[in-house]
Structure prediction request, 616 residues.
Amino acid sequence: MWYYAARRILMSIPIALGVSIICYALVLLAPGDPIQSLLPPDASPEDIVYLKKLYGFDKPIPIQYLLWLQRAVTGDLGISLQTNRPVVVEVFGALSNTFVISIGAVLLAFTLAFVLGTLAAYHLGKPTDRAVTTAAVVGVSIPNYWLGIVLVIIFAVKLGVLPATGMGSQGSAKFSIFEWEQLKYAILPMLTMALVPLGIIMRTTRSAVAEVLNNDFVQMLRAKGLGPFAILRHAVRNALPQVLTVMGLQLGYLVGGSILVETIFTWPGTGFLMSKAILTRDVPLLQGSILVLAMTFVTINLVVDLLQTAVDPRIKRV
Amino acid sequence: MTDVNAQLADFAGKEASPPVRGYWGSVANRLRYDYVTLFFLTVILLIVLISLFAPLLAPFDPTKSSMAYRMKPVGFRNFMLGTDELGRDMLSRLLWGGRTSLLMGLVPVVLATFIGGMLGVLAGFLGGWVNTAIMRTMDVFYAFPSVLLAVAISGTLGGGTKNGMVALTLVFIPSLCRVAESATTQVRGLDFVEAARASGASTLSIVQHHILGNVLGPVFIFASSLISVSILLGSGLSFLGLGVEPPTPDWGLMLSTLRSGIYVQPLVCALPGAAIFITSLSFNLVSDGLRQAMDVKA
Prediction:
């Protein structure tokens, strides 16, 4: 177990390095010379050479990458062109807001999906199962940026019970999910985000529980005369680790892919930060957010993997 | 002995009486009774036809704006589905918008199937360091959530339909490569490949005749399930201003520009999203149906 954990952690280092290479390469892909944005249009050739030297652009690309990596590891991701604040401060300030709605969405999706998926597995092939399967397909097919707009139309425009966008007058500094005045701003983004994981966790739960119910020991439990609840308790316990893994991965996808939902609700998370950075062509900020989000995704995957090995003793890994 | 032979002949005759179907015959037969898949296949065909014949079907010019007729409701005069924030006819724009949305759904998947499939077969068939090099590179791309990777690539390349398609293609290559690689690795060690090599078949003809036939099925099914994802992601990019550029009608872009109108005409603003939803749902269900009919494990 410890050997596996150590190996798994070591294995994620080359992945993390690869991710950093891609993040660095993205800037090279960007159209235009990066030095151009720093210079006045009538700059002399000497000035250009001087600036290139100052920023290290005169060195070969691999060296430039290593210098950039060195700065990135020590927490220096550059300065945002728009706000003139360090990128690290901007990104980590937004990351907590993204986590608030992502964790909320995943927990919501898990609770609902686990119950419905188990029901579907117990009534395999019956109308309940068909309804749940249909709901799952709808969940993964619906564009969540559209669902967000529809929810705004229903709850903010027509009913007027929930705010349409933003995070409230308090802003993100004092945000607390335990106060309704602030929580109500997070409800629609959470609901919108929960839909895709809802569909996926429902499918996973259904197939995992159905697989367990197919085992001989379940037949035995039935023969012993146990009722449906007692049988399901056994099935759920066996299916839970697999479902929890999928839930963890979904959390990673939500945190990394929050840009669409956050743009609709102008929720001040990392996704919203990225879409601002794209609109203003703020390359350091864009690069920094991508790097932090990708690293977060890698870390979440790692933690989920380690937790699964710890929780489920049946998985023996060497 | 004659008794047994007679019995055998009798047995064979009885077995042969239902028509013998090949693989594709039985797939077609299974599809014939799968009404859900057939229904949504028809829906897809309709969407494709509508998009193809949009110039003939659209009652108005999709880019002609009119200040007088901004944000009109469904059924206003000649505008069957109302007008958008610049007074352009919604029905015409929805019909035309299907073109870009379908292209965004299909082109990246087709390109990624070719590139990813080829890389995967290469990695699986050659094994060794080629496999390690290709698959570890793919692992790095796997470390990005797909939305993030698509936004990252098209965000730095700048918007536009072409860049959006490049971004989506790059997003889909790793997963397709993985599917092709694992299918190829499974087949590579089987006896008939060994036999072909022993009888002197060249590497190319082994891949062509023995490997591809076994790899194409899973790859095709997986690719078909990506079309819906591609439509959602492609429209999502347009929604963020990274895909199709205005004034070209596109469902994702329309959804984004119409957001200013949700307080005025909520129903009209919800229409483009409904179009995306129906298209992606149809592709998803048809892909599921095909998987079942072709009996490919997910």
Notes: Chain A has a mean pLDDT of 82.
